[in-house]
Amino acid sequence: MKTIFIAGIIALLLTGCASTPQLYPNAKLKDVGKAQAKADIATCTKNADDYLESPAVKKTLKGAATGAVIGGAIGVVGGLFTGSIGRSAAVGAAVGGTAGGVSGALSPDQVKRQFINKCLKDKGYDVIGWS
């Protein structure tokens, strides 16, 4: 139960790591409004994912797979001592996969950010940072 709780906390942390561009309230933003600006950010983000073949997603999946394998192996070893090899391996794989996915997702993808910044600049927005 404790392991499931920890895995849930890690998943919540991963969700909070998504970053978005912050726009300067210039004439363009004032003219189109926040809703249209969010739609333009979403369009630029999709274009970046399509053009760059989503390297951040590939990195996250690779980290999750590696973490699951390592976590599963650690779980098997732990199961040898507790007598519950199958359960320990499953829990280890789940926690390892989550941790591996988080570690891969935390690496900033600067190329994607630069792509989105340029896309938004071409649309008339001024990106002042990311949150």
Provide key terms for this protein.
mainly alpha; 5% strand; rod-shaped
Map the helices and strands.
Blueprint: H1 2-15, E1 21-23, H2 27-52, H3 55-82, H4 85-105, H5 110-122, E2 127-130
Antiparallel strand pairs: 1-2
Please, how many helices? Answer: 5
How many structural domains can be distinguished in the coordinates?
1
How much of the sequence is in beta strands? 5-15%
Radius of gyration equals 20 Å
Rough shape? rod-shaped
Poorly predicted segments:
7-16
Structural class: mainly alpha
**Could you give the order of strands across the largest sheet?**
1-2
State the total count of DSSP E strands: 2
Helix content: over 70%
Q: What is the mean pLDDT?
A: 75
What is the string of SSEs from the N terminus onward?
HEHHHHE
Taking the sheet with the most strands, its summary is: 2 strands, antiparallel
The end-to-end distance, rounded to whole angstroms, is: 33 Å
Can you give a write-up of this model?
The structure is a single chain. Helices cover 78% and strands 5% of the residues. It is built from five helices and two strands. The two termini are 33 Å apart. It is mainly alpha-helical and 131 residues long. α1 (2-15) runs parallel beside α4, α2 (27-52) crosses α5 and α3 runs antiparallel to α4 (85-105). The chain has one domain (22-126).
Sum this structure up briefly.
This protein has 131 residues and is mainly α. It is 78% helix and 5% strand.
